[in-house]
């Protein structure tokens, strides 16, 4: 089993585990060994899965405004956790490939391995939920057929993205691509960088 196959399997384990209770307040129960890559990938997808459902809840037109604001704060915190964990995964890859010397003509990819893995994690959620809709008995046949078409596209995207990630990792291992990481530099949660926050402190 290659990296992307393993990651896809771990992501789906996380998604299935979450939907046992289907509750955003369910504590994570990560059974993978400490310090294993699988444990990191599971944690990454768990954050994505909880946030997926945060986004569903906040779109309820009848949601209480006070509760909506609380939920927005949770989404902001979740986004920061997601970013931090993606950067941690990139650090894992940096350590893995630290002894590889890139070729003099090595290319730089527009996307780091971990951010590609981030897209694979979100794609696993799209496939899971579109599959539910394609097979939902209470929906019309037209709805199910439309969702099946969308599911087919998502599965095609999954194949292409998995292949691209595998090719990127191979290119890094062969020295054809330089492993280089860029921090996201999120500004909105930083009291020293967000004007709304630091201007409030100055008043």
Adjacency order of strands in the biggest sheet: 1-2
Rg computed from alpha carbons, rounded to a whole number of angstroms: 20 Å
CA-based shape: globular
User: Could you tell me the number of beta strands?
Assistant: 2
For the termini, the CA-CA separation is 58 Å
Low-confidence stretches: none
Structural class: mainly alpha
Task: Describe the protein in words.
By secondary structure, the chain is mainly alpha-helical. 66% of the residues lie in helices and 2% in strands. It has helices at 3-18, 37-58, 65-96, 113-134, 141-173, 195-202, and strands spanning 107-108, 177-178. The chain has a two-stranded parallel ribbon with strand order 1-2. Helix 1 crosses helix 2. The N and C termini lie far apart (58 Å).
Briefly, what is this?
The protein is built from six helices and two strands. The protein is mainly alpha-helical. Helix 1 packs across helix 2 and helix 1 (3-18) packs across helix 4.
Describe how the helices and strands are arranged:
Elements: H1 3-18, H2 37-58, H3 65-96, E1 107-108, H4 113-134, H5 141-173, E2 177-178, H6 195-202
Parallel strand pairs: 1-2
Which key phrases capture this entry?
DUF4254, two-stranded parallel ribbon, mainly alpha, 2% strand, DUF4254 domain-containing protein, 203 residues
